[in-house]
């Protein structure tokens, strides 16, 4: 009798699976309703709605960061990356330790010492309003380009295992996310992230354990992966055009993820919602540990998928259209006979997507209101009017994400597409914050020209690369897969039916368009420095005698003149005389007018 490659083909989503999935959505909705209607301290003020009164707990914030950073793109596309290109990408997991150190000791002290709640406000304080407006615009544009991908990926998984129209499920689940984000504000976002983060971990762990057991144990998985050249993680090739090497996965992702985690408003908003800098640092270290565990599980899932289909590639025989759909196919195949398990997995993927979407919707609403609506004074500003306006912005943004699903459906390799889109502006954002915090002599002209040059150059490079890819001048062929065992499943195919794909061999000189997409953020960051420092010099460097030391990272205070530091210390001492009670941690005011006074330079108590 001919075996079947899967005993649970598409469309076999059971009643139990639907029940599990519905419970997950129900819990998320209930949290939004609770924080929107029943909590004693409702989101009456803007600060409460966006920052939870700056009294959020460390552990929930850490779990929220994990859940929102490991989006549906990671859950679906990272295993696809492992299956197609091997384990090199896993290097991002230990690299997160260095990324967390950079954020904790360069960025976080500056944000807390300057009472920053909107990370782009720092750019106005350090440089000028024009710099802030430019970078804010690039962030908003970037998020609106990427957000539809984050929520579409879970719908892709659901469609693969259930057969339901992908756009129907995308609309339903986006609607749930919009509902609880509108009602509950940051508190609903964080606590749904906690629930969804736990679902992510449990489902990833169960899928890996059951998959390994069905294949024949850990040693069999590793043997098959090694035979298929999927375990190489120390490819030390220095060729920048190679898709993934040790250097791209570590150095390239260092710049990409540092900017994405430490300088994204959706993340900074949660980092500063805890009571003090020590709480923020603790939350980031907890995030780091959780990220490493989940990312390692996620990467290993791809290795397990390869071991399962090592002798009959489902893509080549047409069971799966592309690598990004392999994970739901694998889950349905391996655990589909266990009632409710496919539902747990789909809940995992949707949890990741919902976490990312809700966090970004919440931060976008606050950012757009403060920077693009409130300055025009279209109506009298009150906490009630501000909250209502932000809820409308969340609704409009959510509807946009649903509509954009029609375009995202046409994308090829999702992970590459997300990194490419993000890199248009991510390097500029990373570069301008580093320029401001690490180079005291940088001025507003250098910052503006540096960031603008970075966006222009990266747009040119990425556009050129995409044209080359469409003309098949650039390609990243996956590692070889086998169809030698497909006859056992009733597929009469041989390796000769699938010619080996090779990357185009260009004998011409090196082209900037050929560099790996992982390097885009790194190039963009250095462009800011290459342009920003000379422009600052030729337009008159920042006068350090009239400089506030707290605007740069404490790590480079040694670059400042001694008298500037002494003035800063004397001001602190004067404040201590006026306020003999020592302050152990900074307590933020709840009144927005006081925050505006701080921005105008009124000296407040510091840590």
UniProtKB/TrEMBL annotation:
<feature type="transmembrane region" description="Helical">
    <location>
        <begin position="90"/>
        <end position="113"/>
    </location>
</feature>
<dbReference type="InterPro" id="IPR001734">
    <property type="entry name" value="Na/solute_symporter"/>
</dbReference>
<keyword id="KW-0406">Ion transport</keyword>
<keyword id="KW-1003">Cell membrane</keyword>
<feature type="transmembrane region" description="Helical">
    <location>
        <begin position="414"/>
        <end position="439"/>
    </location>
</feature>
<feature type="transmembrane region" description="Helical">
    <location>
        <begin position="18"/>
        <end position="38"/>
    </location>
</feature>
<keyword id="KW-0813">Transport</keyword>
<keyword id="KW-1133">Transmembrane helix</keyword>
<feature type="transmembrane region" description="Helical">
    <location>
        <begin position="245"/>
        <end position="263"/>
    </location>
</feature>
<keyword id="KW-0739">Sodium transport</keyword>
<protein>
    <recommendedName>
        <fullName>Sodium/solute symporter</fullName>
    </recommendedName>
</protein>
<feature type="transmembrane region" description="Helical">
    <location>
        <begin position="164"/>
        <end position="183"/>
    </location>
</feature>
<keyword id="KW-0472">Membrane</keyword>
<comment type="similarity">
    <text>Belongs to the sodium:solute symporter (SSF) (TC 2.A.21) family.</text>
</comment>
<feature type="transmembrane region" description="Helical">
    <location>
        <begin position="59"/>
        <end position="78"/>
    </location>
</feature>
<dbReference type="Pfam" id="PF00474">
    <property type="entry name" value="SSF"/>
</dbReference>
<feature type="transmembrane region" description="Helical">
    <location>
        <begin position="344"/>
        <end position="369"/>
    </location>
</feature>
<keyword id="KW-0915">Sodium</keyword>
<keyword id="KW-0812">Transmembrane</keyword>
<feature type="transmembrane region" description="Helical">
    <location>
        <begin position="195"/>
        <end position="213"/>
    </location>
</feature>
<dbReference type="GO" id="GO:0015293">
    <property type="term" value="F:symporter activity"/>
</dbReference>
<feature type="transmembrane region" description="Helical">
    <location>
        <begin position="284"/>
        <end position="307"/>
    </location>
</feature>
<dbReference type="GO" id="GO:0006814">
    <property type="term" value="P:sodium ion transport"/>
</dbReference>
<feature type="transmembrane region" description="Helical">
    <location>
        <begin position="517"/>
        <end position="540"/>
    </location>
</feature>
<dbReference type="GO" id="GO:0005886">
    <property type="term" value="C:plasma membrane"/>
</dbReference>
<dbReference type="InterPro" id="IPR051163">
    <property type="entry name" value="Sodium:Solute_Symporter_SSF"/>
</dbReference>
<feature type="transmembrane region" description="Helical">
    <location>
        <begin position="390"/>
        <end position="408"/>
    </location>
</feature>
<feature type="transmembrane region" description="Helical">
    <location>
        <begin position="134"/>
        <end position="158"/>
    </location>
</feature>
<dbReference type="InterPro" id="IPR038377">
    <property type="entry name" value="Na/Glc_symporter_sf"/>
</dbReference>
<feature type="transmembrane region" description="Helical">
    <location>
        <begin position="446"/>
        <end position="469"/>
    </location>
</feature>
């Amino acid at each position: 009798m001919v075996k079947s490659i899967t005993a649970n083909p598409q469309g076999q989503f059971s009643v139990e699976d639907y029940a599990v999935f519905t419970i997950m959505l129900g819990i998320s909705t209930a949290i939004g309703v609770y924080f929107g209607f029943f909590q004693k301290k409702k989101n009456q003020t803007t600060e409460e709605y966006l920052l939870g009164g700056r009294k959020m707990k460390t552990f929930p914030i850490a779990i929220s960061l994990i859940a929102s950073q490991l989006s549906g793109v990671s859950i679906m596309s990272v295993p696809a990356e492992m299956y197609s290109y091997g384990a090199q990408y896993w290097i991002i997991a230990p690299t997160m330790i260095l990324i967390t150190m950079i954020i904790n000791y360069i960025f976080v002290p500056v944000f807390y010492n300057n009472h920053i709640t909107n990370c782009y406000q720092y750019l106005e304080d350090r440089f000028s309003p024009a710099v802030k407006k430019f970078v804010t615009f690039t962030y908003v544009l970037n998020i609106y380009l990427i957000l539809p991908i984050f929520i579409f990926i879970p719908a892709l998984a659901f469609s693969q295992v259930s057969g339901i129209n992908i756009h129907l499920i995308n609309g339903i689940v986006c609607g749930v996310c919009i509902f609880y984000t509108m009602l509950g504000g940051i508190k609903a976002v964080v606590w749904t992230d906690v629930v969804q983060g736990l679902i992510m971990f449990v489902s990833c762990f169960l899928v890996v354990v059951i998959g390994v057991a069905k294949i024949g144990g850990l040693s069999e998985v590793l043997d098959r992966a090694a035979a298929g050249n999927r375990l190489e993680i120390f490819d030390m090739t220095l060729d920048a055009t190679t898709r993934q090497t040790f250097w791209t996965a570590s150095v390239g992702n260092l710049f990409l993820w540092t900017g994405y985690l430490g300088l994204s408003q959706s993340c900074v908003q949660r980092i500063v919602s805890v009571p003090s800098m020590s709480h923020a640092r603790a939350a980031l270290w907890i995030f780091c540990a959780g990220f490493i565990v989940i990312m390692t599980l996620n990467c290993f899932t791809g290795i397990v998928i390869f071991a399962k289909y090592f002798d009959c590639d489902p893509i080549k025989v047409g069971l799966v259209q592309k690598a990004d759909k392999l994970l739901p196919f694998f889950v349905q195949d391996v655990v589909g006979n266990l009632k409710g398990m496919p539902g747990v997995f789909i809940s995992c993927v949707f949890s990741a997507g919902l976490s990312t979407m809700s966090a970004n919707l919440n931060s976008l609403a606050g950012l757009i209101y403060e920077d693009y609506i409130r300055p025009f004074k279209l109506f009298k500003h009150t906490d009630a009017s501000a909250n209502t306006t932000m809820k409308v912005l969340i609704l409009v943004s959510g509807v946009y994400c649903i509509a954009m699903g029609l375009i995202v459906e046409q994308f090829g390799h999702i992970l590459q597409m997300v990194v490419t889109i993000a890199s248009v502006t991510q390097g500029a954002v990373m570069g301008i914050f580093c320029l401001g915090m690490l180079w005291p002599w940088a001025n507003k002209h250098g910052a503006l020209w540096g960031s603008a040059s970075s966006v222009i150059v990266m747009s040119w490079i990425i556009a050129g690369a995409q044209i080359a890819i469409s003309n098949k001048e650039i390609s990243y062929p996956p590692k070889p897969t086998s169809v030698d065992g497909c006859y056992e499943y009733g597929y009469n195919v041989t390796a000769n039916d699938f010619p080996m794909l090779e990357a185009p061999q260009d004998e011409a000189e090196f082209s900037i368009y050929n560099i790996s997409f992982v390097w885009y953020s790194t190039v963009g960051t250095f462009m800011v420095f290459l342009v920003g420092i000379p422009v600052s010099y030729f337009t008159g460097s920042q006068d350090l005698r009239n400089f506030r030391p707290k605007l740069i990272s404490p790590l480079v205070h040694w670059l400042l003149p001694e008298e500037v530091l002494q003035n800063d210390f004397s001001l602190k001492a004067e404040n201590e005389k006026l306020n003999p009670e020592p302050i152990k941690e900074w307590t933020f005011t709840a009144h927005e007018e006081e925050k505006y006074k701080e921005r105008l330079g009124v000296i407040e108590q510091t840590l």
